[in-house]
Amino acid sequence: MVITHHGGQCFKVTFGDLTLVFDPIAKNSTLPPVRFGADIALVSRDHPDMNGVEEVTYGDKVPFVIAGPGEYERQGVVVQGFLSKSVYGLDKGQTEAVNTIYSVELEDMTLVHLGALADTELSKEARENIDDIDVLFVPIGGLSAQASDGVLSPADAHKLAVSLEPKIIVPMHWSLLAQTGGIGKSKALETYLKEAGNSSEKVEKLTLKKKDLIGHDGSILVLTP
Question: How far is CA 44 from each of CA 9, 67, 186, rounded to the nearest angstrom?
Fold first, then answer.
């Protein structure tokens, strides 16, 4: 399995001839859109920063789209989606939006992508069904209740990530802030790593097999877009 970061909350996961993408970036996003073919596309939040299904419909690949809670299976990949809340990128008059947390099982590993999560606790259903996480993608954009980007603050992100006991933690959403600007917001990654207090490693891509997870216990890996 090879995991690469394409900005914001977008991660491409390839294994064999199959490509899965979390939160592909659309053309009308403030972020650079993605452009590659995917077999499976998971959309956590209906927003241009995360719903670019057309951009991953490319060549001979037309993705099977998952855009909400439920149980799914496609080409040997098992996906569970759990309802949660986001306050990211709300339209005028909105107070909250639907966010979907995804648990994906493939190659004997479990990947969990929290999406644009604002809830500091997972639902009972998610807690009961998500277990033994190998790779956790956690949003770290909001800096505080007063200067929130609509997702978890670095402190809340760290607390939730630790409670889920993943083998590897991959922070996300920080590059979205760095690219779109905002006072202090581009420092979200620095703030998160300071909050976490343990060492981290920056990599351009994550090549992973089940055996590689031995010895990992909450290791933080920063995938650079």
Answer: 9, 6, 22
